[in-house]
Amino acid sequence: MENLIALLIAAPLLGAAVLLVGGRRLDAVGHWIGTALAAASFVIGLVLFADLLGRSADQRTLTQHLFSWIPVAGFQADATFRLDQLSMTFVLLITGVGSLIHLYSVGYMEHDERRRRFFGYLNLFLAAMLLLVLADNYLLLYFGWEGVGLASYLLIGFWQHKPAAATAAKKAFLVNRVGDMGLAIAVMLMFATFGTFAFGPVFSHVGDASEGRLTAIALMLLLAACGKSAQVPLQSWLGDAMEGPTPVSALIHAATMVTAGVYLIVRSAAVFNGAPGAQLVVTVVGAVTLLFGAIVGCAKDDIKKALAGSTMSQIGYMVLAAGLGPIGYVFAIMHLVTHGFFKAGLFLGAGSVMHGMNDEVDMRKYGGLRKYMPVTFITFGLGYLAIIGFPGLSGFFSKDRIIEAAFAKGGTEGWILGGAALLGAAITAFYMTRVMLMTFFGEKRWQPDENGTEPHPHESPGVMTIPMIVLAVGSVFGGAFFSIGDRFLHWLEPVTGHSEGNSPLSAWTVTAATMVCLVIGVAAAWAQYGRKPVPVVAPRGSLLTRAARRDLLQDDFNHVVLVRGGEHLTRSLVYLDHTLVDGVVNGTAASVGGLSGRMRRLQNGFARSYAVSMFGGAALLVAATLLMRAV
Amino acid sequence: MSAQLAAYSTSTGEAFQFWVLGTVAVIGALCTVFMKRAVHSALCLAATMIVLAVFYLANGAYFLGIVQIVVYTGAIMMLFLFVVMLVGVTAADSLKETIKGQRWLALLCGLGFGVLLFAGIAHASLKDFNGIGRANANGNVEGLASLIFTRYVFAFELTGALLITAAVGAMVLTHRQRTERARTQRELSEQRVREGTHVPPLPAPGVYARHNAVDVAGLLPDGTPSELTVSKTLRERGQVRDVSAEALNDLKALEQRAEERLERTEIEPTAFKRPEEASK
Amino acid sequence: MNPVNYLYLAALLFTIGATGVLIRRNAIVVFMCIELMLNACNLALVAFSRMHGNLDGQIIAFFTMVVAAAEVVVGLAIIVSLFRSRHSASVDDASLMKL
């Protein structure tokens, strides 16, 4: 059974190679090859899953040693895969959602002449992402980590003829680079501390390392997670990444890749458990990001950017949960999986809307679409109910457990974190209701574009709606399936560990509070967008609204602090270079030149002058000899 | 000068000889350096070398002393004189220094080097004198021969090769390869006629009744000397004597003396000089 | 008298010869000064030979003479050919690396 693990990765990797190398001959069938290989990977994942289910809980870790990757004395990096409950969960999520989105893309990218290449990139992403979650050591994980970064870059900038897309791809790549640096440093620190970076030895030797060293490693891992998962302060790239095709936004920037940071933290649970300070930082980052993303999501009129803010916010929840330690690991992953379903479904719905609206993304030019796109409306609506935490749907279960866990942390921190999570739930309800109302309810607001063609909203083809329906089913029943009887908890507990904590509030109190927040948020959104017509041109809005439209000034902050600071640093370095370095260099050159000009006169061509030099030299030699004798 | 005396110290006679001839040698060396004419330098050097030959004899190097006189002073110095003659025996060098600072540097280096040598000799521990007596017991020439043909035989062979190489080298350096056939007298005269210059023979040198040497240029009707009259070799060496002004100067001197005697001294005595000569 | 005086005389002659090489421009005189230096060395060698009581110094002096003879032959040949091409025996005239 272990030997199947490599096939998980090999299938999409083969697809990527065939599609990218194969050339135009494969244009006609390329999308089906890509989809088939993604599905094959999913099937292999299911087989392995069935195998795991057949084993007892402590036998569920499979490893496959493929080859020795970098065998150097004292530095052993092997291409070894580890399949346990945690990576199995990810494999199913990645391949399952990935296959659905491949299928969706067949329809969505139908008119794009570079569709084959798009599927090649998608397969490449799947392979890299699977490598990331299946790696048995941090170096291999880093390889996959960079691989998904590359795939993300290629896919965000897939329409590189649009300057915005090219810039967004570059921005995502650069911001991710900061996080990747964190992961690289973490790996180095690990090697320096433990002499290895394989998961097993590192986790079993955590007790030997000092807390300071563990905190350093944990903070570097957190930096990596921030970069990949768009957490404050490295969040700025995610909104712009929506320039990529919508399936990419759904797969990479909502369901899978951006959750890699959460995976990294949960996978390194042993390290984080040994560094309480770092855990506190993780929770703070999560709490800040969940509010940040939610606020940004409230102000955006671009449907994809609103959803991007929502993604950021939901991942904030997961990071918050992961930072809580054993109380929250399982719920972080659970929310990750349910979020993968409903957010992918929401993005696919948004893509379906755009598909029918001539790629219009401004929600103020939608309105009343429920009549034109019934399937999209229903699936999107189910996803909406799931994300706001409507009772019985998946978001309700997973998010509620995170809020409970936040309170269960105890003390002042528990209250603050729990409060932030509750507030976030209210804002989530607000902005998602806003998206729903502006898109599917009210009067139609679309107008002819500058070419005079009026959009004709229509339902998307079956190849697009089927994945949406499947994901909607997952959004509805996933949470209940996982939570009833604590199935997910028992499944994952052997890997991550779990403790209940002692919440100051009872579970029912928290659920009730969440429900109140939900109602408040929905009501506020109804009051603003449902009761009265939505203006086509955005009103000026309050100071907070305007700031939120500018992504809470994240880019301005980066510009002022990093770009300007960098420019000033560069300028001062240039000045230093011009004055000091060039001064030394030019001074040396000038002095050599001047000296040469004077020395040149010694070479006057007269044999007698040379004879004087020789004679003088001989005299000096004699003098030196005598002097040495005398001494 | 017995071997017994040379063994330990030097006799009073040798000391006397050293101081007298040593002085001569130093004076000869200085004259070699400072004489204006190369031929004088050569003669002074020959004197120094003969003195050195005497010193060799005094030091028990009888063979070397004779070789010094025969080979060095006799052959090599005569070779020098031969070359001096070839280049121009009467040409006097200007001792004025043309390279800036060269003379001072040379003197400084020479002085410093000399001081160092003297210091070195004074510093060295030269206490024991074995004397040459025992080494010369079987005769100086025999002793040298037994060394040359045993221990130094390889070096001796090498010097033979060196001498042959030097002889060949000298021939190669001085032999001028003619690239074309030398023109005959007839061809030269025909060329002169063809070109129309100097169809008659070149004028003879000398100013008749006063100077008839070959290095005196003949005078043209206006009193200027003609370069054509002297040999090309002399012209190139710059050994042409200019006598064109002598007669006029003599006449001038004669007139002046006559006027002094007649007590008519208004006229200033001035020597006649050719303008181009004054500018030289 | 101490035989070391011969060494002092040799040093003096050598120094005079060396200075002459540096001062004089006439190649022939320069050459003569070189001969003077060689002779000074020979005198020192002969004096050493006497001090040490063996004939090796005289042998070296003998070789010096042979080498000097060879040197004179070649050197004078060079001077003659130089004079032919430049019509001058001044060493300063040969200050360029071309004719």
Largest sheet of chain B: none
Helix proportion range of chain A: over 70%
Order of helices and strands of chain A: HHEEHHHHHHHHHHHHHHHHHHHHHH
| Secondary structure tally: strands of chain A | 2
Order of helices and strands of chain B: HHHHHHHHHHH
Taking pLDDT < 50 over at least 5 consecutive residues as the criterion, the unreliable ranges of chain B are 1-7
**What's the N-to-C terminus distance of chain A?**
86 Å
Uncertain regions spanning at least 5 consecutive residues of chain A:
none
Largest sheet data of chain A: 2 strands, antiparallel
Please, could you describe this protein's structure?
Chain A is mainly alpha-helical and 631 residues long. Chain A has 24 helices and two strands. In chain A, a hairpin with a 2-residue loop joins β1 (62-72) and β2. Chain A is globular, with a radius of gyration of 30 Å. Chain A starts with a helix and ends with a helix. Chain B starts with a helix and ends with a helix. In chain B, α3 (38-58) runs antiparallel to α4. Chain B has 280 residues and is mainly alpha-helical. The longest helix of chain B has 26 residues, at 62-87. Helix content of chain B is 60%, strand content 0%. In chain C, α1 (4-23) runs antiparallel to α2 and α2 (27-52) packs antiparallel against α3. Chain C has a single domain, classed as Helix Hairpins. Chain A binds chain B through residues 604, 606, 608-609, 612, 615-616, 618-619, 622-623, 626, 629-630, and chain B through 99, 102, 105-106, 109-110, 112-113, 116-117, 119-120, 123.
Helices and strands in order, then pairings?
The complex is a heterotrimer of chains A (about 625), B (about 280) and C (about 100).
Chain A: H1 4-22, H2 30-53, E1 62-72, E2 75-83, H3 85-108, H4 115-134, H5 138-156, H6 163-194, H7 199-204, H8 211-229, H9 236-240, H10 246-255, H11 260-267, H12 269-273, H13 276-299, H14 303-323, H15 329-356, H16 374-388, H17 394-408, H18 411-440, H19 462-483, H20 487-496, H21 507-530, H22 543-549, H23 554-600, H24 607-630
Antiparallel strand pairs in A: 1-2
Chain B: H1 3-8, H2 12-34, H3 38-58, H4 62-87, H5 102-123, H6 140-148, H7 153-174, H8 185-195, H9 232-237, H10 246-261, H11 275-279
Helix pairs in contact in B: 2-3, 3-4
Chain C: H1 4-23, H2 27-52, H3 56-86
Keywords (chain C): Cell membrane, Membrane, NAD, Oxidoreductase, Quinone, Translocase, Transmembrane, Transmembrane helix, Transport, Ubiquinone
Family (chain C): Belongs to the complex I subunit 4L family.
Enzyme class (chain C): translocase
